[in-house]
Design a protein that fits this description.
about 0% strand, about 70% helix, about 70 residues
């Protein structure tokens, strides 16, 4: 790799790591795998799948009987 190619890739890698770290911490605190932080970089899956996973998966809803008591 020549110096020009490294100079073009370096800002992208720096920005990606700055964005990746908070997502990784967020998923770990939410009790999810850190791999979801990498999935968030995939355009369509990250836009739809990650918020869906954080909000809906694993949410325990009360049984219907308890709701109407």
């Amino acid at each position: 790799m020549d110096l020009v190619m490294i100079a073009q890739i370096a800002p992208s890698l720096i920005l990606s790591s700055i964005v990746f770290a908070p997502f990784y911490i967020l998923f770990k605190r939410a009790g999810r795998s850190g791999w979801w932080a990498l999935v968030s970089f995939i355009p369509l899956l990250g836009l739809v799948g990650v918020p869906w996973m954080l909000v809906l998966i694993g949410r325990k809803s009360p049984p219907v009987v308890e709701v109407f008591r």
